[in-house]
Amino acid sequence: EVITQSLERDVAEFSSDYQRLLDAAKKINPDVRFLLLTPLAHLDPEHRSAKAIQAFAAAVQEIGRKNNAPVIDLQDFAVDAALRKDAVHLNEQGYRALAVELAGLLGFSSDALTTPAFEALRQQIIRKNEWWFHRSRPANMAYVFGFRKHEQGQNADEIPQFDALIKQEEERIATLSRLQASDLKPQPERLKSKFAEFTAQEIPEFTVHPDWEISLWAQNPMLNKPIHMNFDASGRLWVVSSEAYPMIEVGQSAPDKVIVLEDSTGDGKADKAGVFADGLLIPTGIAPGDGGVYVAQSTDLLFLKDTDGDGTADVRRRVLSGFGTEDTHHNLHTLHWGPDGRLYMNQSVYTRTDTETPQGVVRLRAGGGFRLNTDSLQTEIHFRGLWNSWGHQFDRFGQSFLSDGAGFAGLAYAFPGATFRPTPGAAKQLDLISPGNWPKFASLEILGGAAYPKQWQGSVITCDFRANRVTRFSLTDDGAGFVTKQEADLVRTSAATFRPIDVKQGPDGAIYIADWSNPIINHGEVDFRDSRRDRWHGRIWRLRYTGGRTMEKTDLTQASTSQLLANLESGDTYLRQASRRVLSERSDMFASLDGWLGENPTETAKLEALWLTQAAGNPRIELAEQLLAADEPRVASAAVRVVGQLSDPLSDEHHIEHGMAKRWLSDAVKHDHPRVRLEAIRALAKLRTSEAVIASLAVLDSQTDRFIEHALWLSVNEVAESLMLQLAYASMEEALPVNEQQLQFILTNVKPELAQGFLRQKLASSGIPKDGSGPWIGLVGSAGGPQELRGLMDAVVGETLAPSAKEQALGALARAQRLRKLKPSGSLKPMLELVQKAESPSQVAIGLLGSWKVAGSETTLGRIVTESSER
């Protein structure tokens, strides 16, 4: 019922906005004619989105009727999956088929659509559209036209210069639109910068931790300007590099690349480098997987694949689009596979994203992280906030840790839904786990494996790019969360050109560092066209622990399934994660899983099996149930999170029935370990009911901390309206489903208007008991607004309360003033009169006269002070 009501509201809002759009067009041109198209039907008519799409299609039909505009119904078009990019979007073949369909419906011949002349015209239009994209939606809007425009020079003046290029392309389009033979040649592309000036860079001299050694693994011309990197399961390093960063120049074609580097001889240096893809526009993230590689660039998440084995991508597919570009070093970035087989991606604070998935539009209007199922394209927000989170890694048990490239707060621990500074509109934000003030960090790796000694296992490595150093933190438990401690640097230099911005543990156990190699690292403070912005250099450094083992490089794609399963129990970060990725893409994995578990019945093996089956879309629910009772609380915590993900009724992962999930998670919220309780709070919220959130309030019977309280605040506010409605009905029946402590948490953590509305209704129906029994006096003091406080004051001065209840009420009024700076509405004179006529006035009441600054109370307060001093 709630979902139906929400859909009705959404359709009504859509119809209203659509009509406003048409009305605006009519104002611009009264003679405008409209041709409306409905959305495509969902390929799966039983999918929960199918009904919503049908409702929006019906709304388009109705809008067409109201505006006397023809409507082309696409609900029965392209029902063949071969014409779809995903369940609701066309692919290139689908759009060609749609062009033929529309041409026929409009009375045009579609014969020309397959001719060489038409393809030449199409390519010319695409080129014009590239210039129009930069003109109509320039990158770095925050710096070009926005609130940081004072930091830049001529960049705003550049944008209209695209008009001349667009005009040239329009003239060529006009010629080619005749669809006749033409001697027009494609215009040459300019890839190089007009502003940058080459300056040779010396190799930096480093101060290195005494237990480590550093060597140069790769440098230009093998690569230049690396931004992000990840190793694949074959041991090759995939790098996105950008010469265009931070902003494309007028007339410059997209020059950026995906580079694949490899040390094929094992001598500690890359000897192979290949361009896998070019023509990219400031790519900011890369993750090999699904038989190809995912790349974040500009507004898009792309999937690139080599199908003919020549080492270059011949498939380029836009997976999702609509990601923000308001600041190119805030664009979609930090692509990383999670243990659950989902692709995690971050964006930063200035970015505004509206990306359309088959399940609906996902919006994120600041920093945060996404969790993407690359099969169904189900996309959810994993965390919110952080200024510039250019680093994300999971520990052995699936917990997320992030770095922040601004904000000066260090490193973050993120659980599902965690909300950090700055998150617009968030009443509460979780502090990070690095006490004190810190520099800006980029990237994050967690070391693990035989290449490192015991004291280095689990160390967090990150890059301080401004201070030209790579540093280390240790990580320890802190209640339900964690706390970090700064350890000695691994490497540092005074050379300004050493700009470490990414760090990864490699297949050989060494640490690999991506070096931007640029004296200008900061984004907006230096003009985008400053000639010192280097476009040529770039390095990858290899940092090796001298007393450790060098791990043998293995092509895991060629390893047996049994060997890959054995690798899942490894402490080696790279080996475990890469093996997990290969297994999740193997169809024979399930056939080998039971045998492996029989030989390895450990809790960690069962957890890995649970993650594998979740990634493959066929989760083993019995493993989840077993692991909820794991002896190792870190395993139990991970299992609780999986149960929550598999219990979400709005997710394509939904496999666990509501009642079963609620029983399991209601037990988990009472677990001895605080992190299990935290995960249970957030997992219960996945059930999306107020009853489930009420069950999570049982955590208040145990010791809480800032992490648990934040998780509970998130869960309560996600269902706040329905929760308060349920409590209001229950209150009228004198059958509240929560105790006094739980009710106080709810009322002091939901929006004030919700809490005050509940209290107002309660007090209007039954008032405050004369003896002060129940939680109501305290709740008015902690959550009531001026109107509710007025009612409490009236009860005090009206002599309707017993003496003990009166003192309790005065204390509640004092707490509201002291802690929330709130006082009763209306005249406060009755409190003055109460004090004046009392033989021995309450000290709390006297204090309220002063803190409320009650008019006319000066004489009374002076008399009381005088009498007190005389006594």
Structural topology:
Elements (H helix, E strand, L loop, with lengths): L1 H27 L7 E2 L10 H19 L4 E2 L19 H14 L10 H21 L4 H4 L10 H4 L3 H15 L30 E2 L3 E8 L6 E6 L5 E5 L14 E7 L9 E9 L2 E7 L2 E6 L2 E6 L9 E7 L11 E5 L5 E5 L5 E5 L2 E5 L3 E5 L6 E6 L7 E3 L5 E4 L7 E4 L27 E5 L13 E5 L4 E10 L2 E6 L4 E2 L7 E6 L5 E5 L23 E7 L15 H7 L5 H12 L4 H11 L3 H13 L5 H7 L5 H15 L10 H11 L5 H12 L4 H7 L9 H13 L1 H13 L7 H8 L4 H15 L9 H8 L2 H12 L5 H18 L8 H9 L5 H10 L5 H13 L1
Helix pairs in contact: 1-2, 4-7, 8-9, 8-10, 11-12, 11-13, 12-13, 13-14, 13-15, 14-15, 15-16, 15-17, 16-18, 18-20, 20-21, 21-23, 22-23, 22-24, 23-25, 24-25
The averaged pLDDT comes out at 94
Q: What is the general shape? A: globular
Helix content bin:
25-40%
CATH topology of the largest domain: Neuraminidase
Poorly predicted runs of 5 or more residues:
none
- Count of discrete structural domains: 4
Your description of this structure?
- This protein has 871 residues and is of the alpha+beta class.
- It folds into four domains: 2-176, 3-Layer(aba) Sandwich (Rossmann fold); 207-545, 6 Propeller (Neuraminidase); 719-823, no CATH class; 827-871, no CATH class.
- Helices cover 37% and strands 18% of the residues.
- It is built from 26 helices and 29 strands.
- Strands 3, 22, 23, 24, 25 and 26 form a six-stranded antiparallel sheet that branches.
- Helix 22 packs antiparallel against helix 23.
